[in-house]
Design goal:
Keywords: Chaperone. The protein is of the alpha/beta class and 271 residues long. The chain is 25% helix and 20% strand.
């Protein structure tokens, strides 16, 4: 993985998933972070688009994996806009982990959404719930995350076969090919197969502190979920009130790209 610098250098937190992407949009826009470069990795699919945050179109293009730095908040973000090539997620995660370690970063935060259909214990009394997974303790728990009112992802079990297999891959140890035929996969193998799990395992294997912030969502308009996940990330990073205009209670600055997030409004003449 190569980091191509524009102005300065650094390594960000990583966002994956629709809600994670939208949450990083909010964090970048509201903290007025500036793009400092992009990451070029052979395992991520190419994509290109117009400037996501500028108020006027200047012709500056956005790329699949970009780095933004908020000097005022001492934070760096990565915005991932395209998926990883099928079957190469662990390779991609290893590259991310190698680069993070080489850059001297100590704590990486992964933002991701999860399938609402997999939410086993639904307790709507407390509203939308944020789940976490941390490398602080062997069982994935973290006292600070618990203090913030979040629950550890119950499906994490370091002794379960797929989590152990993923950890073995992350550590670069030799493993048997096709150890888990597709027709033998069980429900408990689902979560270790997700991108956040590969990132968690590879970053942890490098000795970095990694915290995954996760929220369940359904297909469709996930803007409200993005506000919750961005709020969780700001709490974890001790950002406090970060100002801005519009959005959730006037705290968040909405990116200009969100104006066309779900396409133009329907043609009312057809009703």
């Amino acid at each position: 993985m190569e980091f191509v610098s524009e102005e300065g250098s650094g390594f960000p937190a990583l966002s994956i998933g629709n809600v994670g992407q939208l949450a990083v949009d909010l964090l970048v826009s509201t903290t007025r972070a500036e793009r400092i470069g992009y990451l070029d990795d052979p395992y991520i699919l190419p994509c290109v688009g117009n400037d996501a945050y500028g108020l006027t179109p200047t012709g500056e293009l956005t790329l699949p994996l970009e780095a933004y730095q908020s000097t005022a908040k001492s934070l760096i973000f990565v915005q991932q806009r395209s998926p990883v090539i099928k079957g190469r997620m662990v390779d991609f995660a290893k590259n991310i982990a190698d680069f993070a370690a080489a850059s001297g970063k100590k704590h990486v935060v992964v933002l991701s959404s999860l399938d609402f259909g997999r939410w086993q214990n639904i307790d709507m009394s407390s509203g939308l719930q944020i789940y976490y997974l941390s490398s602080t303790n062997a069982d994935g728990t973290d006292d600070y995350c618990e203090k913030l009112g979040w629950k550890r992802l119950q499906e994490y079990d370091p002794a379960q076969r797929s989590w152990k297999y993923l950890s073995t891959l992350a550590e670069g140890k030799a493993v048997e090919d096709n150890i888990f035929p597709e027709d033998e996969l069980e429900d408990e193998d689902y979560y270790p197969s997700l991108p956040f799990a590969a990132l968690f395992s590879c970053l942890k294997a490098k000795g970095l502190k990694v915290t995954c912030l996760l929220c369940y969502c359904s297909e469709g308009d996930n803007i409200s979920d993005a506000f919750h996940l961005a709020e969780a990330a700001s709490k974890l990073s001790s950002l406090g009130p970060i100002g801005g205009h519009g959005g959730d209670g006037g705290r968040w600055l909405i990116p200009i790209s969100w104006q066309s997030l779900y396409g133009p409004p329907p043609d009312m003449s057809m009703f």
